[in-house]
Amino acid sequence: MQKILITGGSGLIGKAITQLLEEQGKEVAWLSRNPEKYAQKAYYWDPVQYKIDQESLYWAEGIIHLAGEGVADKRWTESRKKDILESRVKSSRLLFEELEKVKDKPKAFVSSSAVGYYGFDTGDKLIYEGEPPGRDFLAKVVKEWESEVEKIQEIKIRTVIFRTGIVLAKDGGALKEMLKPPVAAPLGSGRQYMSWIHLQDLARMFIFALENHGLSGIYNAVGPVPVTNSVLTERAASFKDKPFVKIGVPAFALKLLLGEMAQMVLGGNRVSSEKIEGTGFKFNYGDLNQALQQIFH
C-alpha cells in the first residue's frame, strides 16, 4: 500500500502518522476543508456539507480516519456536544456512501475511536474489547461513530477500529494540559486509572493495521501498563522538573471549571492491550518511565 489518505491529518496523531508513512517512502494525502492551507498533498472535503472530492477515494490504496471535533477543546454546551457527535458520525457516513460508489476500492480502512466507549468510569476492572458500552455522552458518541464505520466492512473493505486511550506526546494531548499549572497535582482522588499510549506507538499501530491483512474489527489502542492519575501526574512532573503536590484538585472545583466534561477527568478506565499484542504488535514505549524519558529528554 503506497498511497494513504488521512482524515484529520493536521492533528497531533495525523501528523505523527504522516511523518512515519513518508519516512517509509509512502505517498500521503489529507482530506481537508482547506486543502490549499497545507504544504501536504490534500483533497477537499466538507463532511458537514456532505461534500468530498471523489478523486481522493480513487487515488487512495488505504484510508486512515481520524477526523472529529476535539472532545476536550471547549466546554460542552449543547451545540458543542452536537458538533462532537456529528463531526464523527457524518464524516464516517460520507466516506461509507462515497466508497460504495468506487469500483476499485481501497484495500483497508483504519479508524480512530475511543476508550470512552466503555463509559467515563469503569473503576479498577480490567476492560477488554467485548465489554458493553457505557451510558454517558461520550459512550453514546463512540457507539454511534463505530456503527457508521462498521458499515465500511460490509462493502468488502477490511476495516479496523482503534479505541484510543490517553495519548502522551510532547507537543499536545494530555501531558501538556496536566503540566500547564505551576504546580502539578492529581485530579480528584487521583486513584482513577488512565490508560495511556505514547504517540509514536499509536502512529505505528495505525500503520501496522494498514499493512497487516490479518487485522480487522475492534482493538484497544492503549499501552500495556495503565497507571492511576496520581502516578502519571507525579512521574510526568518529575521528568519535567516541576513541583508536585499530593493534594488532589477537588472534584467540585473541576465541575465548576469544566462542567459535564469534568466526568472525563474524574473517572477512569483500566483498559487491556492484550488483543492488539496478540496480533504481534510490539510497543516501543510500553513502560511509563521509558515513554516520559523519550518525551522530555
Descriptive report:
This protein has 297 residues and is of the alpha/beta class. It has one domain (3-296): NAD(P)-binding Rossmann-like Domain (Rossmann fold, 3-Layer(aba) Sandwich). The chain is built from 11 helices and 14 strands. It has helices at residues 12-23, 55-59, 78-101, 137-154, 173-178, 199-211, 229-239, 251-258, 262-266, 274-277, 288-296; strands at residues 3-7, 27-32, 42-46, 51-52, 62-65, 108-114, 126-127, 158-164, 166-168, 193-194, 196-198, 217-221, 227-228, 270-271. Strands 4-3-2-1-5-6-8-12 form an 8-stranded mixed β-sheet, with helices on both faces. Helix 1 (12-23) packs across helix 6. The two termini are 34 Å apart.
